[in-house]
Amino acid sequence: MRYLDEYRSPALLRGQLRAIRELSASAVLMEVCGTHTMAISRSGLRPLLAPEVDLVSGPGCPVCVTSERDVGRAVALASLEGVTLATFGDMVRVPGPQGTLLEASSRGATVRVVYSPLDALALARENPDRRVVFLGVGFETTAPTVAAVVLRAREEGLKNFFLLSLHKLIPPALRALVDMEDFSIDGFLLPGHVSVVLGTEAYGFLPREHGIPCVVSGFEPADILRAVYLLLRMKVEGKPEVVNEYSRAVRPQGNRKARETMYRVFREADAEWRGLGVIPGSGLELREEFRDLDAGTWDLEVPEVGERSGCRCGEILRGRIKPPECPLFARACTPDSPFGPCMVSSEGTCASYFLYEGGEGSGG
Amino acid sequence: MCLAIPAEVVELRENETALVEIGGVRKVVSLMLMDGVEAGDYVLVHAGFAIERVDREEAERTLAVLEEAAEYGPLYE
Ligand code: SF4
Q: Which of A236, A177, A241, A259 lies closest to A203, judged by CA?
């Protein structure tokens, strides 16, 4: 397909690899976005770049960073009489205190997997006798689509469409990450499609205040290698900036209409991230005028629990360890029978390693 | 989950939607998050919404940069 295939020629990869080697620099770089993690694992870039360049994964898989408590709230919601809970596919397999949404549905809860929040709206229209709750997970890429659907529901006067907003924002999470003790990442590969909405200036504080080079990158292997090259070069030259490698999709100012839609419906609120804890202003809650469709205000019984003991997703999401360092990896935790969310999501770091980086049989 | 895929806009439809083609498959997507989309544009589609145009000039420019590095020839020879 146009604008995809052209980027996949092996000659482009070799050229970028050569450019990287010629710099003879070493660095630990974090790919923030789960879609990058998957692309890197699938294309086998990690071993090609090692040991000089160590690519570690960050907190950029929305399903993975959803807290145990929030998974519990979702299961409690889905289990209410007369409620249909609609959400994206990966969410239904994440274990929470009362098990997964999928397990809840086998106990009688009504759970529907949708591809778009528009499908959840359609469910509400078609089932006027049920309360349809959309479980909104995702970052700046996804939140505007959910906001647009909230506005549509309002326009149509739908009374049975509700939202549990677990949306999260990337820049506050990066701020929390770099402020952590023993943070030691030399550069960020920034999420391309989050940046489509945000633009590039939202990350300006990273080079300015922390001296960390950043590259907004596309998702083809050649894009990723080019981003790695640019990060290394900035490190070598000591001139950190935010560089936009994905300029075919990301405008410096981002997509203003998408941001306006998002902020018309949501406002920033504190949010709890798996592995990172509560980060101020890193979540999105519905504004006052949309409170009537906020399922987050419903009274729910959620068992109090900590994160699953044994699962080291928290450290994975902070880039502290790699999946094979978790004793459960590829043993008690596999994509067929995931113990933690990083193994559930198709973009989870543990699932990416398991599927593409010799997880099977390689153990701990 | 932040996956977005390039699609060609086939025609505009009513209610702020468009028919697009993604790798031979046609579907209707919402244009609520974009202004000024026209038939023939390439857009990125995420969760049923067009979220941005793919800029042809920038796409060519990036390819040119990548191709320039590729012209030095294979690395392992
Ligand atoms: S391998 Fe499984 S248990 Fe270990 S950190 Fe990853 S998701 Fe958690």
A: A241
Q: Does residue A312 have its Cβ closer than 6 Å to ligand 1?
A: yes
ipTM above 0.85, yes or no: yes
* Tens digit of each residue's pLDDT (9 = 90 or more) over A32-59: 999 999 999 999 999 999 999 999 999 9
Q: What single DSSP character describes residue A326?
A: S
Q: What is the pTM of this model?
A: 0.93
Q: For residue A333, give the ligand 1 atom closest to its CA.
A: 2
Interface test with B, best of A141, A168, A195 (most B CBs within 10 A): A141
CA of A314 to the centre of ligand 1 (A): 9
Instruction: Quote the DSSP letter at residue A334.
Output: B
Digit-coded pLDDT (tens) for A267-285? 999 999 998 999 999 999 9
Helices A143-156 and A256-265: angle between axes, nearest 10 degrees: 60
* Chain B residues near any Cβ of chain A (below 8 Å): 1-4, 6, 8, 22-23, 30, 32-35, 42, 44, 46-49, 51-52, 54-56, 58-59, 61-63, 65-72, 74-76
